User: Fold these one by one.
Assistant:
Number 1:
Amino acid sequence: MDVQHRSAVLLEWKNLTVSVRPSAASSKTEWTGRPGHQQRKETIILRNACGAVRSDNLVAIMGPSGAGKTTLLAAISMRITGATTVHGKVLINGLYVTRTQMKQLTGFVPQYEIALQSLTVAEHLSFAAKLKNVGYVAALRIANELGLQGCLGTRIAHLSGGERKKVNLAGELLTEPQMLFCDEPTTGLDSYNAASVMKTLQSLVENGRRAVVCTIHDPPSQVFQRFSDVILMQDGGTVLYQGPTSDRVAFFHSIGKVLPVTGNPADYYFQLVSPGGSVSPASEAEEAIHRFETIRKACRENIARKCLTTRYHQAMVIQKLTSDRHRVCRARQLAILLHRTALHSIRNVREYLTVTAIFMFTSVVIASLYYEVRPLTQTSIQDIRGALFLMISELVYTTSYGVFYTFPAEMPLIRREIGEKTYSLSVYYAHKVLYSVPRAFFESFLFIGVIYASVGFTTDFLTYCCMSLVTGTASVLAMAYGYLLSCTTGSTNLAIEISNIVFLAFMLLGGLYLNVNAFPLFKYLSCFFFASEGVSVYYWLSVGSIPCDSETRTGGNETVTCLPNGIAVLEDAGYATSYEALELNYLVMAVQIVLIHLLAYVLLRRFVRKAGFY
């Protein structure tokens, strides 16, 4: 037995039926069941599909919009997600496989390119190879095979549509799958790029190396001619014809349909299966379809017998499943993702510098408003309180708002790479958190440094470091709340709206507008309180004496209290009066940061699973 036949892979699907339950808000909801126990009736979008694909097949799944092309592709690749129910069997070389095992054995190329646009082709493939435990030499070989050697140093954002499709394709070929699924590989491409992509796909199935199954909509004739097999679907989720493109003439002739000699065959197929088009007006046509499908079934069984007569074929699949050499440990995943994100940030440094400049302009405004304010009089106490609170409020707000865009902006990438088991979602979340922590402390030291140098704080450098440290820690807590709100809503706009209410409550508990002694427990929920009390303690404890006004302290029914030193100022605000008391604050913040991130991760995982992976 030669190598080609020994490595042949057969994918079979039997009686696949996919149904989806309409949402409660749908106006077309139908109910089933006895009164009191009714449930929404599921809508069938794929009916009793059977078929087989083997190595050396380049298969086109064609049909009008809504016929179930993508549903069939997702079902046979076991990538179907959402509120769907799947009945039927999918086998590889006669073996039942789980969804995870199917992802180990096959590759899936989504319709739209999903990658960090700032990376070059070489960098993208390098990171993908590392995450899939593949050598970079193999990645370069695949790039050369797909004709990407001339654009390895080009950023993905600057590639043509066809080149981007090939980059996506190269990422999937790293694990050497013997079955490849492509969703609309020519969508959005001109005829030249579409033909180039199809030529590449055709080369992948040569000599029985693998099978490629594609959904495609209205292909031009030069694209259609490259397919060896076609699955033609009609409205209602049923399959009209499946088999070699060379047999299509005989099939349609058997049901009384003569294909035009000239023109694009795909155009005729779409007219035939479009809603309202009649395929079999006579009973003879139904008999012809049944007769032809019986022949096709015998042909598929013959293929199965040839591929599955020995145990070697199943052993090959089992060996690939048990080796699982394309996964790296979580620590390695974390290091790779941190490196990739750092490189992406460096490529977008101009944007970061612009945002930071605007952020620092706010600190300059605050510094100019409170320039050379010193605790020399009783009236200056209020000025310094305002300067400190405005400083930490602006810092906490800006830091928390900065993370609202993280997950919504990267959700397509997350869904794609998590869906293909490229890395763990927990590792992805952890790398985002770890990458943001140094940024929070850096911006805290920078922001406070500008204000500290301009306002007349009569304290030393150590006090500045302590104030920056406590505000940095509070900023990390604010980031955790930002991640939580972002993961809870899944929408940037909704997260911002909810955060306005939440952070307003937190600000009131910060100590400037309300005396925190009235809220002995609730104050520990506020990141504003931790930052405000921290900077106040570090600043006011070093202030030994504040002169009292020589004028009378009473006027009418109002008594003006003199605050002779920094401790008195802290007591008046309800803050702690010792450095040791801040140790509890640091502990509470650390616990809250961990718990909030755990909750945010759980909500993110739930959201990703509900939204699906493709």
Number 2:
Amino acid sequence: MLGLSYLTLALALATSSINASPVEPKTICKCLPGQSCFPSPSSIAAFESTLSKPLIHPRPMGSVCFPNDPTFNALECDAVKAKWHNGAFRTSVPEAAQFINWETMINSTSVDQCDPFGDVNAPGNTCFQGRVPWGVVNVTSIADIQKTVKFAAQHNLKLIVKNTGHENLGRSFGQQSIMLWTHNMQEIKFSNSFVPKGAPTVTIEPGVQWGTLYKAVADRGQLVVGGIGAGGSVGAGGGWPMGGGHSVLSPFYGLGVDNIVEETVVLPNGEHVTANLYTNPDLFWALRGGGGPSFGILTSVTYRTHPAPPVTAAFLVANTSTEEGRLELFKEWVKIHPDIVDAGWAGFWPYSGTQFFLTLMAMGNPPSNPKATSTLQSFYDKIATIPGVSIDLEVTKPYTGFQQWYDDNFIHSQNGIGFNYTVGDFSGVPAAVSSVLIPRTSFETSTDDLAVALAELTDARPFLVGGGVVSKVDPDAMAVNPAFRSMLSDITIALSWNVTSATPQEVHAVEQTVTDWANGIRDVTKSPGAYVNEAEILIPNFQEAYWGNHYPRLRAFKQSIDPNDLLIVRQGVNSEGWDDEIMCKTL
């Protein structure tokens, strides 16, 4: 009888479950302009009075070109058009992103943008605000950040952070948001014996850019591991270190996060704290690769600096006239890739159409690794014999140090050799991007398959930034993607579209193509590893791709310090449930 009672109870429970009404999902949303919850004009004015600078209420860059816009100014329009593709200029104003699709609202039915090159005189043609924020705090002090964080938390506002806007997923922009613009925090301080590590260091505020920092460090006879971008406009104190930070110098000195000694941040509760190995070590772990600004808004970062030896650079331009020759070139490159890394080379190997380029660097002049020259020469000799392959340029050049190499090839490109990186880096266009971290094992055991996958891409920008010191750091020492410790090269893919005429469906097709191409590489590597700073719009399983087995720890820590989801970004830690615009979350 007892068994029958249990059975009867089980059936009753099952029946009641079937007949019960489904639980409706709960939705919570940010408070937006125009809603009753939004702070009143007097509240905003009171907040503004506490800041060091007045609030900025920007319109999109192109608004001055629209005759029906209050900001219309024909002379200003000409100036804006002249600077539209100037990446350095775009970093210097709060209303501009490097890739303009992140200033634009794209949904299933429309592309709401502010394109000054379209027919601005057409009836009804409007400059849409898009994803340009309604308000900008021009940060000049830590107090500005703290006050803004508390104001945004109090009113449940959508808060974003921008230092330069070099962002591939639009996380430094956001529809109807309030922006912390840290670009004007520019202090640089040196120490010969920084506590707690006792090492030579440089401490910077979040607005400092790599071009400026490289020169300041070089003037002291040192170098610092940092990002590479034409014009030097990538930020040194924002998303780059918080996402991990790979560099042409990484194989010699480690990733950016491997060189961070200390960071200071404003937490989601408004508290300003220091994080290092001894103070707030869990926060320090998360900040080094967990993605920005998920765990706090960076107010300073302290990097270890290193002596600056002379370097040797190698440049190659190879041209292929047949598909067979192009594939054989890739097979030889994949085959020798691990040897190139072990021989002490790092750098870039972009390719486009029929051309294949190398821009490589080795420490020392001549290279300190005795195998450097012979290993690279063996690759040159091999591809020179491939039918359909011609070597158009092969140059080895000594430089006094990293700084001279960087200046010649990324700042003053008229002095550069081979691939023109100033032309290759583009701004003021829409773009969809992806990255795949290719592990050493793929180069060693899947040579032909990897070569085929690479050759199927008509255009790519791979970075040889792994191996060496990068591979010797404990994968769990910090939050950065553990896939970095076993990779040799990071391949990036980027596609654009016609901003004036593209429909939402055409934009989505480009985004899908980028993911399809990246999947072709991932199918070979069997590794989902990707670089969070080269985020992919349609990436499968971003949690595993960007952080691997570190994600559960990151998410638990994120939930503990940001229980109200103030600092949430697309594809960021604990962003599950939020829509792509971080407007509403479904629980």
Number 3:
Amino acid sequence: MDQNFFFCSFVCFVCLWTGLLSSTEQEKDPKFWNTWAQQTLKNALSLQTLNQNKAKNLIFFLGDGMGVPTVTAARILKGQLSGQSGEETQLEMDKFPFVSLAKTYNTNAQVADSAGTATAFLCGVKANEGTVGVSAAAVRSQCNTTKGNEVTSILKWAKDAGKSVGLVTTTRVNHATPSASYAHSVDRDWLSDSAMPAEAVQDGCKDIARQLFENIPDINVIMGGGRKYMFPKNQVDVEYPDTAKYSGTRKDGRNLVGEWIEKMENKNGHYVWNKKQLLSLNPNNVDYLLGLFEPEDMTYDLERNPETDPSLTEMVEVAIKILKKNPNGFYLLVEGGRIDHGHHEGKAKQALYEAVEMDRAISRAGLMTSIHDTLTIVTADHSHVFNFGGYTHRGNTIFGLAPAVSDVDQKPFTAILYGNGPGYKLVNGGRENVSAIDYQENNYQAQAAVPLSMETHGGEDVAVFAKGPMAHLLHGVHEQNYIPHVMAYASCIGQNRQHCAGHNQGSRLRPALPSIAALFTLIRLLF
């Protein structure tokens, strides 16, 4: 199935690229569009034979805040960075054969946050906003509601099944998305013990940084930012010794990195904090890797120092090289986390460049794995109130102006706009005239309809792209918590593994018929 699909995709790309050499003239000819559509049809017909292999490896890419408008705008940007008009470009995720929609609401929120959604797509149950790795019975910030309401993640299911596991993020490694992989916390903001109320510490709740090292022993790969949450309070940072805000934060005096290094002394474990150290490693000699490249979040890709800071793509490549040595396979979570931050700050250029970099990482992972034994999923936790419009012409720079001025205030406006956020500005009682400023500058804050210090999430469904074994199970519109159940089913980990009996890696799985007990359970839940 997937062989034909990707061959046809390649043919489509070649035809499209050839057409772009004289796109204006080619597109005037109906044959151009008919030929392209017919090739796409052949592509779709090839999907009739489904990939029902057992997934040895699982890769989950999460674009934080990467709603459908962000995907479309990133596609255009990717093409324009390559000298094309952009609209006809394909992102790597666009090439995946199966696409569905996920409903993102939290159990107590119509418009979700990243903690409750992470619990859904990693642990398989929907939860309250602001909580990670606990069910909806837990109440945010109430420590005494933690015990008994913990839920485990697909990372743990994979580890328990003997696979190597890893997480890579451009945010802090104890941020909302990655933390749902290993932590059980009623407050996503409990990043270190200094961020917790005294009574919560006294009642036995643990900060998220501590849980990273204690809850799931021996996570094979951990990479991202967040150094300052791992070191004793006021201990200066190795990279920014003169910047007080980057010093350690821990009140308990523990050096979590030092403890990890000591624990891994005879286990081929390595700690790194810069790109040079990371790329000097021989993955064949590394079984455990802890990489903390910034005190807080990693820098935006547009601002990244390529000499000292690894890109998301570089981190993913190293992670896969380490994880794939395990004959039982691996699970890897990859978060393009700063897409979300760019949008919150109203900085669309930062957000979209982050999305394009994640697309590069998806491409690199695809080159290093096989669709025959690796299920890869790309999705978002939620969207943002970001959009672009204004009847822009074909090939208009994605960060450019709409072709006509407003017929109300007679001023120009950028195609990219936000529904709310810090870009709301009044000058002399009216909307700012963007022609007088550099609206293509990296940190330009696009205009917003409602003034807020931080732009908000959007509540619409997000796309889920899938390829590899059992990818066809992601179809139509689903609850977000369905995703890890598909991954577990495909890989024969976690629950409902009856269909896996007698099957080796790469062999076909047979659908499992529901048991009488399962049917009774469902009836009881419904009635």
